[in-house]
């Protein structure tokens, strides 16, 4: 395990601490001695570990992105690297990754041994994130040379358990082959949660990963990876694990559930969602198993990567701006209206949306009120999204029915997303549930006032301006169309009758600090704790174990 050289406080720092403590307490300390609390702090500092962290995921911005998971992996990796850890990210090498945009080099190949004597030769490639964080890309044409990441034309690939199961195993083989043994495997969602299982069932004594710990982040508990159990032999997992307290779920296997059972720690992406998933409705069938792990479950709010999502420097928007001068935002609004063929009118509010078109996002609620709202209220509506065909069709016809007033782009476009966040006045997010939600965070930073449902991470990041003068948005509570219509009308009414209030919400939002710094420190704390726990459990078990002192694959 890599221990950073102990960081001792400088003389000045020590003096400062002693001084501030002594000013609180009159008790004199012998020269050079610190009070117990300070000593503990000192010890903690001394044991700060420089960790090898591997973020294992199915998406990573800007290479392969379907939703917020990709952004989270990218920005967490950057923030952890800033904390001086050795960080790498690994994802599949999908053929949808545009190779012409990146500098990618081939590192070598490795054999992945699955169950049933099945072997796959995979290729390992390396690119980089932010210029200095290695991104490993796992190539296996049969599984990843496809037109989609998880699905195609709205249909999920039927072999996803095979694809991501093999990927999870490949990650371990690669680390072994490369002689790079992470202290932490940070896995994400069902696609990679199997890695935590493999880590634990790898033949124990000889395992090069004996000292590695795993952390699973649940980004969305409604996607669990439930598949036919017949995949178990391929995964090399014994049928004896096909029980209700590990893999089995109503006759199928449940990969997320297994990840929850086998990971050393579990996080989810906001404190409120961490509470919601412990309840039967929020837990989508997994609340009971999660409650058993409640002492190793924590919600950590995602942040905003201010290098990518920042109106002051964003290269994807026509004019940059900040809260001290919003002229640029008005020009972005004009550009948005032009791009989407809307009437150029600075005084008409634009309600924007960038979203996967899925039930989770409250699209059904919106569908039932949007036409009425557009017919009766004075606003423009812009949407960027793709997903379920029924919803895509709805927005296509809406644009025709309300030409010049409502427009949509069905598809995926990073550039348009930035333009909508910058050019809109309100950002609509009527989610039925929302583990974290990045949309409402980006909107606030871009001075676009969220109109959102109070659920999950939205509760932790948006305060209603009607309740608090430091508020940044408008919230509705009941997951009902009438509640959505009401809040939309209220916000639009205030735009007309109390523009100062809207301006206050806008400026408050732009002043929020959603930086990753604090959240990354929370991850760091958990990583350190579970690595230390793992280390002490193996040393206490067998202090003379030769495999502890040196890696088998240096
Ligand atoms: P989720 O991950 O559930 O989709 P989030 O709000 O966490 O929701 O993250 C959504 C991310 O995906 C944001 O970065 C948003 O800009 C982006 N996004 C969603 N749909 C599209 C799209 N059609 N085109 C471009 N970006 C999109
Ligand atoms: C999931 C969630 C979303 C969250 C994102 C990143 O896609 O639906 O709420 O922001 O993951 O963690």
UniProtKB/TrEMBL annotation:
Record-linked InterPro entries: Glyco_trans_1 (IPR001296), GS/SS (IPR011835), Starch_synth_cat_dom (IPR013534)
Residues the record lists as binding ADP-alpha-D-glucose: 65
Broad enzyme group: transferase
Comp. bias intervals (Low complexity): 11-28
CDD domains reported in the protein's UniProt record: GT5_Glycogen_synthase_DULL1-like (cd03791)
Stretches assigned to the Glycosyl transferase family domain: 339-506
Name of this protein: Glycogen synthase
Catalytic activity: [(1->4)-alpha-D-glucosyl](n) + ADP-alpha-D-glucose = [(1->4)-alpha-D-glucosyl](n+1) + ADP + H(+)
EC annotation from Swiss-Prot or TrEMBL: 2.4.1.21
Known pathway: Glycan biosynthesis; glycogen biosynthesis
Function: Synthesizes alpha-1,4-glucan chains using ADP-glucose.
Domain Starch synthase catalytic: 52-292
Similarity remark: Belongs to the glycosyltransferase 1 family. Bacterial/plant glycogen synthase subfamily.
Chain intervals with Basic residues compositional bias: 1-10
Keyword list, A-Z: Glycogen biosynthesis, Glycosyltransferase, Transferase
């Amino acid at each position: 395990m890599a221990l950073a050289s102990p960081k001792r406080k400088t003389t000045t720092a020590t003096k400062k601490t002693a001084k501030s403590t002594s000013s609180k307490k009159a008790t004199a300390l012998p020269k050079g001695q610190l009070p117990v609390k300070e000593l503990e702090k000192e010890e903690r500092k001394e044991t700060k570990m420089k960790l090898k962290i591997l973020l294992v995921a199915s998406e990573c911005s800007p290479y392969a992105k379907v939703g917020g998971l990709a952004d989270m992996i990218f920005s967490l990796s950057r923030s952890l690297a800033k904390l001086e850890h050795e960080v790498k990210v690994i994802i599949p090498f999908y053929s949808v990754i545009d190779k012409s945009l990146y500098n990618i080099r081939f590192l070598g190949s490795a054999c992945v041994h699955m169950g049933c004597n099945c072997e796959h030769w995979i290729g390992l490639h390396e690119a980089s994130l932010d210029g200095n964080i290695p991104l490993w890309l796992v190539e296996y044409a049969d599984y990843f040379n496809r037109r989609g990441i998880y699905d195609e034309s709205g249909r999920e690939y039927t072999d996803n358990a095979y694809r991501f199961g093999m990927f999870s195993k490949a990650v371990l083989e690669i680390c072994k082959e490369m002689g790079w043994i992470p202290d932490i495997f940070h896995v994400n969602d069902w696609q990679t949660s199997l890695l935590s299982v493999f880590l634990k069932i790898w033949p124990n004594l000889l395992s090069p990963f004996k000292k590695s710990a795993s952390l699973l982040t649940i980004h969305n508990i409604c996607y669990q990876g439930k598949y036919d159990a017949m995949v178990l032999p391929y995964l090399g997992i014994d049928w004896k694990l096909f029980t209700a307290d590990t893999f089995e779920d109503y006759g199928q296997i449940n990969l997320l559930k297994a990840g929850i059972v086998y990971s050393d720690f579990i996080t989810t992406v906001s404190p409120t969602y961490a509470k919601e998933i412990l309840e039967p409705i929020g837990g989508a069938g997994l609340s009971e198993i999660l409650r058993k792990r409640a002492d190793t479950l924590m919600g950590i709010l995602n942040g905003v990567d201010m290098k990518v999502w920042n109106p002051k420097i964003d290269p994807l928007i026509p004019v940059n701006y900040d809260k001290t001068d919003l002229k640029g935002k008005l020009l972005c609004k004009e550009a948005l209206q032009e791009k989407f063929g809307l009437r150029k009118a600075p005084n008409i509010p634009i309600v924007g949306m960038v979203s996967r078109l899925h039930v989770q996002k409250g699209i059904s609620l919106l569908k039932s009120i949007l036409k009425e709202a557009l017919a009766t209220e004075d606003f423009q509506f812009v949407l960027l999204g793709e997903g379920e065909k029924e919803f895509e069709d709805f927005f296509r016809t809406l644009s025709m029915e309300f030409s010049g007033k409502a427009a949509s782009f069905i598809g995926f476009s990073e550039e348009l997303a930035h333009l909508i966040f910058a050019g809109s006045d309100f950002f609509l997010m009527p989610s039925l549930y929302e583990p974290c939600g990045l949309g409402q965070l980006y909107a606030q930073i871009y001075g676009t006032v969220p109109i959102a449902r109070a659920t999950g991470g939205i509760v932790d990041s948006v305060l209603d301006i009607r309740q608090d003068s430091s508020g940044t948005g408008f919230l509705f509570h009941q997951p009902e169309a009438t509640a959505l219509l009401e809040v939309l009308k209220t916000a639009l009414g205030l735009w007309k009758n109390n523009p100062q209030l809207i301006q206050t919400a806008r400026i408050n939002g732009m002043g929020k600090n959603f930086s990753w710094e604090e959240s990354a420190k929370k991850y760091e704390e958990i990583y350190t704790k579970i690595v230390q726990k793992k280390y002490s459990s193996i040393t206490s078990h067998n202090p003379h174990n030769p495999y502890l002192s040196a890696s088998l694959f240096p």
